[in-house]
């Protein structure tokens, strides 16, 4: 390896920073966060350095660098815009066997500063050995997106439990499985994120009381409307932790590509009027997989609590005593409207928005008189087969036939296609698109010509 990775304990230890410009500020923040006793030498200081000095966080030395400033120091960073001065600092540090970092000259430094992901006490450093700092930063950003903020609290909690776990479980492999359950316990993670000490303690005691090979849990995850980049950070984290992923046809291939490769995938695809896997069977699949001790993700298009039957599935799990949690997603109405240049509300056109299912349980009836009001936006999910009836009912209850409408097919994906017209044409327009499609009705649709920004697929207007 080119560099030996090392984490240094700098709390209370004397360090020197040469330079007090904007670049030096970034280095100073890291050293102060690490608890270093910091001395900064420079001819001029930025306001931030002056504030730190006034608060007693560091010591300022106004003037030229001199080698005697290195006496008693553990490490030094040269962060000036004077290359010759930086080299002078490096040579003086080398003579005293003090580690020295040179900004923008890693080849001459005795240590380099990696890109850092701070989940203290969990720390992750990414380095390219100074060859590609932008690449290291991009990798750090990707890892940041994958790692929950609560990991630091979880690592701190684990530190306090090590001795107890060692006494409770004599076998090393059993201890390892217990730790895996702790680190993948989503409800414990949420209680830590919420600073709920009592609930965290209760979950820990449950883990000690339960057999190691115990039932798993289910996480209901919203996959968003199609574009994988619209997944929430927490959704991405959950699908990459899952042992089993149960998904339907509304989950895009792009999102499924994010699933851990060795996870089992169970397809329960269904569409309006064609449930190849009945809802009762889906409920049973979730139940059985969790009872086998699996971490199950139920991946649903859009948001699982908006026409996704997520509540029905969780009722079954709750009745069986299976632990569960929910990760909301960007619902199809929000995603498809945004990617079509259609704001769902607008002061001039709509003061409210209604999400409506195009088909409900048998004998379900919509309040058409309320839906046919002016100055509101209607979004119909799963409404293609009922488009002609929607047109008739809204018209019969007073909504103008000239009201703008849009049908969004495969919203937010590269295959998105938008068809627009008026309410009088809705039934006919529905024959031009395929499922999955969303119907948007209201004056806001007229803004699409101004606001359409997403045109990766030929549009039809």
Structural summary, described in words:
It contains 17 helices and 19 strands. The chain is an alpha/beta fold. A five-stranded parallel beta sheet has the order 3-2-1-4-5, sandwiched between helices. A five-stranded parallel beta sheet has the order 10-9-13-8-14, sandwiched between helices. The longest helix is centred in the middle third of the chain and has 18 residues, at 151-168.
Index terms:
five-stranded parallel β-sheet; 461 residues; single chain; 19 strands; globular; 17 helices; alpha/beta
Beta content comes to 15-25%
Radius of gyration in whole Å, from Cα? 29 Å
Biggest sheet, open or closed, and with what strands and sense? 5 strands, parallel
- First CA to last CA: what distance? 59 Å
Q: Report the mean per-residue pLDDT as an integer.
A: 89
In brief:
This protein is α/β, with parallel strands linked by helices and 461 residues long. Helix content is 35%, strand content 20%.
Topology:
Blueprint: E1 14-18, H1 22-33, E2 37-42, H2 47-54, E3 58-62, E4 75-78, H3 83-95, E5 99-102, E6 115-119, E7 122-126, H4 133-146, H5 151-168, H6 172-183, H7 186-193, H8 197-209, E8 217-222, H9 233-239, E9 244-247, H10 253-256, E10 264-267, E11 270-271, E12 274-275, H11 279-291, E13 295-300, H12 310-320, E14 323-327, H13 332-339, E15 352-357, H14 368-371, E16 376-381, H15 387-396, E17 404-409, E18 417-422, H16 426-429, E19 437-441, H17 448-451
